[in-house]
Amino acid sequence: MNSNDLVKNILKRDVDEQDKILKSTEVIKPCPVDVDLGNLLVWDPNIIDQQAYKENRDEYIKNTMRDNMQLLVNALWQMPIERHDNTVVAKLPDAKTIVPREKPVPKPKPLTKWQKFAQSKGIVKKKKTKFVWDETKKEWGRRYGYKKANDETKPWLIEVPTTADPSEDQFAKRLAAKKERVAKNEFQRLKNIAHSKKINMRNDGAIINKKSSAIDVKKALATAKYSDASMGQFSERAAVNEEQQTRGFNKKRKYESNLGSLKSETSKQLKIFEQMNSSTKK
């Protein structure tokens, strides 16, 4: 074999290997596949070649997936193309295949009192920027949170008002006011959650249970009477028959003396023994 034949064989081998690696973009199938670009889905109705599948299952699946993926890419390049920030974007059509959801559609969150009030008054929430100008530091800072701009919660000097007590700690007063505002906001947040869950709540935060029976009310009344330091000794009576209605709720359990009658104890034990040996279950 001369040098020319050797070069031809090498070039032919390289071309054959390149054809194996880089396949053609044109895919021909007996039955056309259904391409849903809205869901990026390809439905292949062609019959599986059982012989080729049994000989090499992995290679057959790989080739089938490659051909279907090539058909999907070919269909994508036929869609109108737009450019956004030096990026090529294809405008996909609406989906035509109904894909079932794994979970139900989430329900919309109920509106809070402020949101309902804003809707009734036509108040539109304006989007605020994250940074504001700090006049003291002469720089931009965060509007809320840590190291926020125009932070007056930690001043090094506070002027005492003319109407205030000179001996009063203004720093502690301001800190207490801030804690009160935080607690008020948290209480309002919990009230909004209770309102969304349709839980009846009073202004003081107590939950109103409409399903409470008269017995539950009597028990609560009797417990409240004996919850003070005097164990109800100096509690006022709300009604004359109240003591009769709540009688027995806070009654202490009485235990028999250990030094009782031997005859009564013997009769009790014999009665239990007879019940255990009897054939009828009680």
Automatic annotation (TrEMBL):
<dbReference type="GO" id="GO:0042273">
    <property type="term" value="P:ribosomal large subunit biogenesis"/>
</dbReference>
<comment type="similarity">
    <text>Belongs to the RRS1 family.</text>
</comment>
<keyword id="KW-0539">Nucleus</keyword>
<keyword id="KW-0690">Ribosome biogenesis</keyword>
<dbReference type="Pfam" id="PF04939">
    <property type="entry name" value="RRS1"/>
</dbReference>
<dbReference type="GO" id="GO:0030687">
    <property type="term" value="C:preribosome, large subunit precursor"/>
</dbReference>
<dbReference type="GO" id="GO:0005730">
    <property type="term" value="C:nucleolus"/>
</dbReference>
<dbReference type="GO" id="GO:0000447">
    <property type="term" value="P:endonucleolytic cleavage in ITS1 to separate SSU-rRNA from 5.8S rRNA and LSU-rRNA from tricistronic rRNA transcript (SSU-rRNA, 5.8S rRNA, LSU-rRNA)"/>
</dbReference>
<comment type="function">
    <text>Involved in ribosomal large subunit assembly.</text>
</comment>
<protein>
    <recommendedName>
        <fullName>Ribosome biogenesis regulatory protein</fullName>
    </recommendedName>
</protein>
<dbReference type="InterPro" id="IPR007023">
    <property type="entry name" value="Ribosom_reg"/>
</dbReference>
